[in-house]
Amino acid sequence: MPLSRLLLLVLLIGKGDSVCRLRGSAQPPELAQDGDLVIGGIFSFHNNTLINYFTLFFFHHPSFNFREFKFAQAMIFAINEINKNPEMLPNVTLGYKIYDNCGAMDILRAALALVSGIEGEVSDDNCTRGETVQISHFATCACLSNRREYPTFFRTIPSDYYQSRALAKLVRLFSWTWIGAIAVDNEYGRKGIAAFIQNAQDNGVCIEYSEFISSSGPLESLQRIITIIKHATSRVIVAFMSHREIKLLATELYRQNITGLQWVGSEAWITDHSLTDSEGHSILEGALGFTVSRAQIPGLEEHLRQLHPSQFPHSQFVRDFWEDVFDCSLNETANTQRKPCSGFESLQNIESTFTDVSELRFSNNVYKSVYAVAHALDNLIKCEDGKGPFASGSCVLQKGRPVCCYDCIPCPAGEISNLSGKLYCMKCPLEYWSNNEKDACIPKAIEFLAYDEILGTLLALFSLLGVYLTMITTIVFYCHKETPLVRANNSELSFLLLFSLTLCFLCSLTFIGRPSEWSCMLRHTAFGITFVLCISCVLGKTIVVLMAFRATLPGRNVMKWFGPAQQRLSVLAFTLIQVLTCLLWLTISPPFPFKNPLLYEDRIILECDLGSAVGFWAVLGYIGLLALLCFLLAFLARKLPDNFNEAKLITFSMLIFCAVWITFIPAYVSSPGKFTVAVEIFAILASSYGLLFCIFFPKCFIILFRPEQNTRKHIMGKTSNSDIRY
Question: If you ran DSSP here, which 8-state letter would residue 104 be given?
Fold first, then answer.
């Protein structure tokens, strides 16, 4: 829109500030209300048609612009809403001063009167206050986006940069490749039509002529443009101007009976209802263009219909408006042909463009402009020391530049900016993390050792492979259970050991997957009990071997003190101790799932808390004690006959077992997150594979590939037959 609509809102902070003032008598506001903070507005309440074009023909008095008056009422309605809202600007009342710019003829005087903030005689004795913030609902000129030239200008309507491109594409869409272009002779028209022409030519559209029109120019200028249109071969005209210029142009074209034109208009006039009252409105029928989106403002219609001159007793415009709508006179002494107003007139039953809220477009922009100012003031008033936009360091002002110019560095990880209009960085809550754009906090990713990740899949496969190999070994031993190699040293313990190894491999699976209450309790207790059962079997076999080959007196049967019954009882007793320890642990302080947000900044580790660390280390320590005892006994039996290598195999397996679990302790303590679980699974699998390979695979090799060695004579070697119980 033209610069005449530039100053929609001027923010006056406080009262009595020193400013540059207008010399002479200031224009009083048409509508005003006192307040702690005053918001000013300038609107074109009159369509002034005192134009040099027609001084030779006629003289028009100003007519009312109901649309602009509705804009002013939308501003007042928004201010009243804000004053009634206890959450916004508490203990602060907003006021307003609204001026009429008389159809752009006196906008400068109105603006200076508004900035001066006082009525009566004014001067420019003092000029100390900074620039006034301006917010426009209508000014679309792309030039106003230049922050160097207009550092305090804001708007609630898109720039003409986008409208010009859209109009060029619209013309091309209808294959109108030969057109004319006319624009108002100001920044709005010149910048807008220039951008349109550039984009149109880029889309293959040819421009026959490009002319500029002014609402205050000489008559010859208008007649020259009319002549160009009349003799042009193009019938499509793009008009980048306001409703004032298009009225002049359409009226003169109508007078000269120039018809058959297709108009493409800018947003400034394409939806202006006041054009229907102009003499040449039929010329513009069928015009195309883009406009602001339609919106709804709840409560505005009721506000408009409640308007009465008594609300603004000093406003001449409101009185004129009222008299025009009801065709009556509020001044009984005035010399007028109108009848006196009865006092019962009301807008409740009047249907007019003023009370019509079905097409709220620019009115919504005015409404949003007021709220933009109110939110800015609310943030300013509620701002606390040390928590302002530049309070540590995300944004810093550019030296020597306007206050809206600053340099920002990205917020560090875990912090966000631009939350509720704030420019400083804010830390996300403990269980949240910043997104990639650093403008929102999102829940942290929850991490645990899952089956669908590579590490979890590999550990699960190795666990199942261990179960498979153990079952194969069990089948081999069962098919050869009557052979001397299997019967030697209590075959029952061998099968029980294979069963416990299967459980050891399976218990590692409970460590994979999302931790839950039952899985946390199961994983550590199952691990502790199955490993004690396993080591108890190995310990029983070790004692059998040691007692059998350490008998020093011939014929002395020491095995009667540790026969099959005693062996079973020892395994049961050792295992029962671990079962009681686990029950005590689960009763007093069992393991439970726990979200650890402190280990990593960007994610939460879901792990099993031990509950009682004493219980965990007691279970682990008992396993280590049995393993160490088994290793010592097997070490004492290391010099047994070579043909019977059970003790050597047990010694080597216990050496691997102890090495794995001694290494496990520092690795377990130092591994972070899900890798702690992976280390524990690795220790379980490594020690289980060590027992399986060292104790059973050599025997399976002899059974399957060296059957000649699977004889009593070969196994016994130099020892007597009575020393071994089958």
Answer: T
The two three-digit tokens of residue 668, written as one number: 């377990």
Alpha carbons 229 and 214: distance in angstroms, whole number: 16
Residues 468-497 have pLDDT tens digits of: 999 999 999 889 888 888 877 667 888 999
Cβ–Cβ < 8 Å for 157, 142: no
The predicted structure's pLDDT at residue 229: 94
**CA geometry: angle at 463 spanning 457 and 467, to 5°?**
140
Do the strands 46-47 and 24-25 form a parallel or antiparallel pair, or are they unpaired?
unpaired
For 388-427, how does the pLDDT look when each residue is reduced to its tens digit (9 = 90+)? 554 464 566 677 666 666 777 778 888 887 554 455 678 8
Our measurement of the distance from residue 442's CA atom to the centroid of its chain's CA atoms, rounded to an integer in Å, reads: 7
What kind and span of H or E run contains 506? helix 491-507
Partners of 98 in beta bridges: 31, 41
Per-residue confidence (pLDDT) for residue 208, from 0 to 100: 95
Cα→Cα distances 544→532, 547, 650, Å:
18, 5, 12
What are the residue ranges of helices labelled H in 589-723?
A: 613-636, 646-670, 674-691, 697-705, 712-716
Per DSSP, helices labelled H in 285-397 are: 300-305, 316-326, 362-382
| Closest residue by Cα to residue 72 from 351, 375, 369, 378 | 369
CA distances from 168 to 123, 201, 202, 273, 593 (A): 48, 8, 9, 25, 63
Structure-block tokens of residue 16? 């009595």
pLDDT of residue 393: 46
Nearest Cα residue to 307 out of 348, 277, 344, 336: 348
**Tokens encoding 1:** 């829109």
- Distance (Å) of CA 658 to CA 256, 622, 628, 697: 110, 13, 7, 20
For 40, 136, 575, the CA distances from 366, given in Å and listed in that order, are 12, 8, 82
Residue with structure tokens 């305090």?
152
Closest C-alpha to 715, from 643, 608, 664, 667: 643
For residue 627 the two structure tokens come to 């393993």
Sign of the dihedral defined by the CA atoms of residues 275, 277, 280, 283, in that order: positive
User: In the numeric block, which tokens belong to residue 619?
Assistant: 């279970």
Could you tell me the end-to-end alpha-carbon distance of the chain, in angstroms, rounded to an integer?
Answer: 107
* pLDDT number for residue 119: 43
Radius of gyration of the CA atoms of the chain, in A: 47
Q: pLDDT under 50 in the chain at which residues?
A: 1-19, 49-61, 104-105, 118-130, 390-391, 393, 420-421, 552-553, 642, 718-726
pLDDT at 77: 96
Q: Quick one: pLDDT at residue 82? A: 95
The residues, ordered by sequence, that sit 6+ positions from 636 with a Cβ below 8 Å of its Cβ are 546, 550
Residue keyed to tokens 């699976």: 509
H helix count then E strand count, the chain = 19, 26
Amino acid at 535: I
Contact 271, 358 (CB under 8 A): no
Q: Can you give the three-state secondary structure of 432-484, one letter per residue?
A: EEECCCCCCEEECEEECCCCCCHHHHHHHHHHHHHHHHHHHHHHHHHHCCCCH
Cα-Cα-Cα-Cα dihedral sign, residues 136, 142, 147, 150: negative
Q: Rounded CA gap, 638 and 648, in Å?
A: 6
With CA atoms as reference, report the closest residue to 624 among 713, 550, 535, 706. Answer: 535
Q: Tell me the CA distances in angstroms from 667 to 63, 227, 326, 672, 679, one per residue in order.
A: 89, 93, 92, 10, 7
